[in-house]
Structures are given as structure tokens and as C-alpha cells.
Amino acid sequence: MMNRKEFYEYVKDNVKEYLPESYKDAEIKLQEVEKNNGLKLTGITIPNGDQRIVPTVYLDSLYQEYIHGKDVDSCVGDVADMRIEAQGKAEFFDMGVPDILDYEKMKDKLQVRICDKEWNTDLLADKVVTEHGDFAAYYAVNLEENGEGISSIPVTVSLMNEWGVSAEQIQANAMVADRKRGVTLMDMNEIIKSMIFGEEPENLLNEKMDMEAMENPMFCLTNKAKMNGASLLLQEDIRKQIGECLGSDYFVIPSSIHEVLILPDNGIFQVPELNAMVQEVNETQVERQEQLSDKVQFCDKKTAVMENAERREARLEKEKAAEKVEVKGGIHGRLEKAKAEIKAKEADKVPKNKSKDLAAAL
């Protein structure tokens, strides 16, 4: 059995046998592609003629099929099939390449992508990035969006320079575009029912809900397509709207890059327990490249300010401790100061020959 590197090289050396004649002169390349959270995937690019946009076929999952018994030549055939299938889409995008440099045509196609900034240093290195507490936002141009998924290109610093706009302008236009994709806040219980019965859950974003009447209230914030919807969390007016719906402060659970969960702060949940829950779910249920973060956030309903829940608790404890010290020290200090002032006034009134007696008495 071949190891991973040998498998990739075998695919590269043999895939032309399964492709049409138009690919016979293709310069085939293997490349490592950085994905979310440090995940690196190996892709193969097979140009067809002078195409400017060449689709990447990822080989990692095929290697897993190979080590579990699939014939290696069947895997190579699958790669060829995927490349041929992607050709039509690549030609469509290739025709639109000149438009990519026209910001006015691209700004409505922008989308905010969100990730944990500590996990994604390499991924963000050449991207247009804005920071939001624990999160970093980077941006993409969605060339196509449909029920099958999204085809996009990242907004790099070099592309931004070609456009001649600022990162702030890109952020503002991307957030407007995201609002147009639809903002939904749904009851998790209703989402589970919809999986069984097929009915779309009600969008509660404009509702004022009675939390006391709800059993285990938990909500999901995402977009209508449920793709890359967690970034809606970065919009202050949406956070404020959620606070008004709930009528309380709330915790934000970073479920995945596609959605976040909202829990009202009703005194039941403890931050360490929530953090532990997120870490466990990430490790056992969420694909690495779709993990958003393991840091629970807290949002104030009045100010819509969002901050790391653990650091917030530490800050509040520190402020409370400082307040106690200030009150204790402050009263003592004020008494001492008043006593000293009285002494000074009395000393001015008392004849000098009696000042020693007063001092001794005090």
C-alpha cells in the first residue's frame, strides 16, 4: 500500500489517462492549500488550455477511501471525473474574471467570513482582515451561490489594492450584502422538529419572547442559506435586536462558521461549563475546518457590546475586589484625613504652650 505522498504522486502521474484529449498538454500540479484553523489539504490542479481560473480537486478524502480498500486506479478515475465536472463552472467563472477587478460589480457579492484569530494566523496572512475581539473577519467574493454550495475567491490585500478601496469600505459593503442574504433567529427546538417534519422554523428576530414561559430556551443565529452565517454576529444592530427579542443579556456559543447559538443569561449557565461543552463538541462533532472557536462570548443587551465571557467574569471579579478595598481603605483614609484636619485647626487655636498637652491627649 502506498503512503500519502506516493498516492498523490501516482494520481498526478496517471490522471491524464482518464481525461479527454484537450488535457494532454496540461501542466499538472500538486499544492497544499491552507484552510480554516490550520487545516492543510492537498489539491491537484489540471488546466485545460489557457484557462485563467483552474479548479482544485482535493485528494485527502480519496486517500482515505484508498487506505480503506478502494482500488487506486478507481480513485484516479474519480479525480478525472471531478475535474471534468468542474470544467463548465470554471469556464463560466473564467468569462467573469475581468469583472473581478471592478469593485462596483463585486461589492454586492461580498461576504464576511469569521474565524478564531489565534487559530488562523497563516490563513489570514495575505487577506483583508478586521479584528473583532476573539474573532477575525476576512472577506470573500461569492461568484456563485446556490443550493449546492458557494464558489468564491478570497479578498486579498493585493485585490483590495487593485480595487482602490479601504478595508473599512469592504467591511461595510460586505455587511450590507450579508443582510440581504437574510438574517434568521430560530428556536432550536423548532429546528429539531423541522428536521423531522420538514417545516421551516419561524424567524423570531422581530419577536419579543417570554423567556420564563420557554423550557430550555436556545436559539440559532444564521442566514437563510445556513452557509457562513456566524459572521452576522459581528453586526452591532443584530446583537442589539437579539437582546430586545430575549429581554436579557445572553451568551453566544460559537457553534460553527455557519451559525452561532444564543442562550439567555438566566442564571442557570456557568461560563466554565459552557466553555467545556464547546470544546467537547468541537472535538467530537464539528469538522476541523468548520470550527469557529472554543471561546464563549457574553453580550450585554443594552449596549450590544460582546466580549469573551471568561475574561468578563475575571474583570468583574477584579473590579468587585478593588471596590471592596477602595471602600474599606477609603473610609479609613477619610477618617484619618478628617482627624488630621481637626488637629491642625485646633493647633492653630491653642496657645503654643498648650499644644504639647493637646498632642499628648490625642
UniProtKB/TrEMBL annotation:
Keyword check for Coiled coil: yes
This protein's UniProt keywords: Coiled coil
Pfam families, sorted: DUF5688
Domain of life: Bacteria
Location of the region described as Disordered in the Swiss-Prot/TrEMBL record: 343-362
Coiled-coil stretches: 299-326
Name assigned to this protein: Transcriptional regulator
Organism annotation: Dorea hominis
